[in-house]
From TrEMBL:
It comes from the Bacteria. Residues 52-113 form the PRC-barrel domain. Pfam families: PRC. Coiled coil: none annotated. This is PRC-barrel domain-containing protein. InterPro entries: PRC-brl_dom, PRC_barrel-like_sf. Keywords: Signal. Residues 1-24 form the signal peptide.
Length: 145
């Protein structure tokens, strides 16, 4: 009896392995998750959470001028702005500003904002998030879907 159960378990496991190959993700056919092409992009990409968020921003002289608190993604999925805290005490931001990501560089393992000083960043207008609608817009109401 035990040998029949073991044989059945092995057979079903091998069938499961065979069937998993037949259901591999194919670009453009996977309804949920990522396609093969997207998973390659995912592997070659990098994590904003681990690489950018809450990381210090320096000027070209190595002086710390702020900390990145957020990344703004535009409706076309492009990364448009970094929200930089010019003044922070114990993790609480006192003056967030929007900096176009094109102005940031990654040099010698540091995020660099050339020409920046703490005073220059504090002189920029404070960034404030717009109020989010109480109810999200359904996908069907977007013209590109």
């Amino acid at each position: 009896m035990k040998s029949k159960i073991a044989a059945l378990a092995m057979m079903s496991a091998s069938l499961g392995m065979i069937s998993s190959y037949s259901y591999a993700q194919v670009a453009g056919t996977q309804p949920l998750g990522v396609s093969v092409t997207e998973s390659t992009d995912l592997i070659l990409g990098w994590s904003v959470k681990k690489s950018v968020l809450n990381k210090a921003v320096y000027n070209e002289n190595g002086e710390k001028v702020g900390v990145i608190h957020d990344i703004i993604v535009a409706p076309d999925r492009s990364v448009s702005f970094a929200i930089v805290a010019a003044n922070q005490f114990l993790g609480v931001s006192h003056h967030d500003v929007a900096i176009p990501v094109e102005q940031l560089d990654y040099t010698d393992g540091k995020l660099v904002l050339a020409g920046a000083t703490k005073a220059a960043i504090k002189a920029l207008p404070v960034f404030q998030y717009t109020k989010v609608k109480a109810t999200p817009t359904p996908r069907s109401e977007f013209p590109h879907h």
